[in-house]
Amino acid sequence: MEAAAIRLRDVTKAFGRFTAVAGIDLEMSDGEFFSMLGPSGSGKTTVLRLIAGFETPTAGAVELAGRDVTRLAPFERDVHTVFQDYALFPHMTVEQNIAYSLKIRRVPRPERLRRAGEALEQVRLTGYGKRRPAQLSGGQRQRVALARALVGRPKVLLLDEPLGALDLKLREQMQTELKQIQRDVGITFVFVTHDQEEALTLSDRIAVFHRGRVEQVGTPAQIYERPANTFVAGFVGTSNLLTGEAAERVVGASGTYSIRPEKIRVLDGAAAGDDPEHTTAAGTVADVLYLGDVTRFVVDLDAGGRLTALQQNLETSSEDVAAYRGARVGLRWRRRHTVRIPDPG
Amino acid sequence: MTSTGQAAGSVRRLAGALHRRPRLRLSLLLGAPLLWLVVAYLGSLAVLFLSALWTTDSFTSEVVKVWSAENFSALVSEPLYRQVALRSIGVALAVTALCAVIAFPVAFYTARVAHPRRRPLLVVAILTPLWASYLVKVYAWRLILSAQGPLDWVLAPFGVSGPGYGRAATVIVLTYLWLPYMILPVHAGLERLPESLLDASADLGARSWRTFRSVVLPMVLPSVAAGSVFTFSLSLGDYITVQIVGGKTQLIGNLVYSNVTLNLPLAAALGTVPVVVIVLYLLAVRRSGASSSL
């Protein structure tokens, strides 16, 4: 079998007394869009810096395409990075920025210019080559950073929250483009983000980070539908957990259960009883939020516990929604959407 | 209570009146310093230029207020003056270059390598020589550089001797004197340099030397230019160090000093040389974008 594009073996990184990464094992395959998702300080950026070579692990090994690169400097690794602040050289033009890695590798000038031009075209910035980074907008700088990292044709591209500084519209547009570019060049993208929606949209696989450890690795569907523990269930999507007595009374068994808000239907008045296909629970609406396309119901269950349900605004409008506050409702969802969260340990 | 209330009220009214009259506010703010600047700085400069256009009675050395460009033409035609002017510029440039070469590694250490908590202490350490008297420091160097002095003694095992008093000694001592003025701006420039730029350069395949040449140096050059404004102008105006360790070396400052009592207009004309050179230097430096780092 072919060696993985990136392989981390029991990697630990400590800064003084603080352990940023605590014994992580990860494998990313060729051509994969791999996201590292987690809250700030969870160690995901440190892992990225370990792959790039800006940091050396305290213990463990980093392999690129089967080769141990743990002790190699960044310039000895076939990996390029798109930085969070883009890190464009302000004293160089866009073209010089992009051609920098080619110049270092002594690629002749005509070929350098040709490839820089191609890279600019790839990120749809043709004609901007002679400008300085300061003359570009945030989104344009982001594209230049991408072009600069791609022009050297690395085996792996590392992206450190590259869309974090962009506004919502631009971010969504860049997500689509990023995915397109990744498909075109066919190399491994390792993408660091704290935005679960971004990770779910873009990735082939996701690793969820928490306190320097990987909580779960899987496809977006696995992460979302089958969270491995309460942290993943809470961090990815809205936390909707039933535990203890509430779980026993609603689900009929002890343990911790997660139900995604969009799987739950809100019914007027008391819900019909359970049937083989469905689970039901009665409760009182504690809060209603009209979000335009959907409405968010927060319901206190008679059985104890609180669930959030999302409803498409197919027929309801904002006026109808307000009337629900304090109303008695029934909640109903398919049994197979009740996901048991394994107990820790 | 009422009196403080009234006082507060009138202060408030005054503040309001000033707020509505931005010009009045500005003139109150800048009036005194502007007066000082115009009278003391520009006034004395104007007198300098005017007196350079006068002449002296060759018997009594009295200033004769007759307009003439004689002194300025002497500056150009007299080979000695030309030679001394060029020598002074040469010394100032050498001092500046030496300062830049020494300051860079020092500043790189204080701004990027040393532990962040220790950096302020290091900056203070760099500034400590400025606390000591100029004369004491230069006389200390006179001792160090003297024949059979400490420098000769240290160099003797290698079969060489110190430079002795002269132009080289002048350059060495001036470099020592003005070095902090170069280290500080370079330190500030290096401290401002974002870490991610160095990471990015390494990430794109550059080794340390390449990163230094292509990223660090061009980005810190404006700071070096800012520091050079200090080292260059301070060196060009100095005449005491030359007298103490310069041996027979003469710089513009010495010519001015020796002419002040005999031929004040000529001294004034000589004094305009560094002014013009520094203005030209500043214009050149401005093109490098250093004015924003000063």
Which helices and strands appear, and what pairs or packs with what?
The complex is a heterodimer of chains A (345) and B (294).
Chain A: E1 6-15, E2 18-28, E3 33-37, H1 44-52, E4 59-64, E5 67-68, E6 79-82, H2 94-104, H3 109-122, H4 138-150, E7 156-160, H5 168-185, E8 188-193, H6 196-202, E9 205-210, E10 213-218, H7 220-225, H8 230-235, E11 241-242, H9 244-250, E12 256-258, E13 265-268, E14 278-290, E15 294-301, E16 306-312, H10 318-322, E17 328-334, E18 339-341
Parallel strand pairs in A: 3-8, 3-9, 6-7, 7-8
Antiparallel strand pairs in A: 1-2, 1-4, 4-5, 9-10, 11-12, 12-18, 13-17, 14-15, 14-17, 15-16
Helix pairs in contact in A: 2-3, 2-4, 3-4
Chain B: H1 2-20, H2 22-52, E1 55-56, E2 63-64, H3 70-77, H4 79-113, H5 119-127, H6 134-145, H7 150-155, H8 167-192, H9 195-203, H10 208-237, H11 240-245, H12 252-259, H13 264-287
Antiparallel strand pairs in B: 1-2
Helix pairs in contact in B: 2-13, 4-8, 4-10, 8-10, 9-10, 10-13, 12-13
Model description:
The complex is a heterodimer of chains A (about 350) and B (about 290). Chain A is an alpha+beta fold and about 350 residues long. Chain A folds into two domains: about 5-235, P-loop containing nucleotide triphosphate hydrolases (Rossmann fold, 3-Layer(aba) Sandwich), CATH 3.40.50; about 240-340, OB fold (Dihydrolipoamide Acetyltransferase, E2P). In chain A, about 30% of the residues lie in helices and about 30% in strands. Chain A has helices at about 45-50, 95-105, 110-120, 140-150, 170-185, 195-200, 220-225, 230-235, 245-250, 320; strands at about 5-15, 20-30, 35, 60-65, 65-70, 80, 155-160, 190-195, 205-210, 215-220, 240, 255-260, 265-270, 280-290, 295-300, 305-310, 330-335, 340. Chain A has a six-stranded mixed β-sheet with strand order 6-7-8-3-9-10, with helices on both faces. In chain A, a hairpin with a 2-residue loop joins strand 4 and strand 5 (about 65-70). Chain A starts with 5 loop residues before the first strand and ends with a strand. Chain B is mostly helical. In chain B, strand 1 (about 55) and strand 2 form a beta hairpin. Chain B starts with a helix and ends in a 7-residue tail after the last helix. Chains A and B meet through strand 6 and helix 2 of A and helix 9 and helix 10 of B. Chain B: It is a multi-pass membrane protein. Chain B: It holds the Pfam family BPD_transp_1. Chain B: It is found in: Cell membrane. Chain B: InterPro entries: MetI-like, MetI-like_sf. Chain B: Keywords: Cell membrane, Membrane, Transmembrane, Transmembrane helix, Transport.
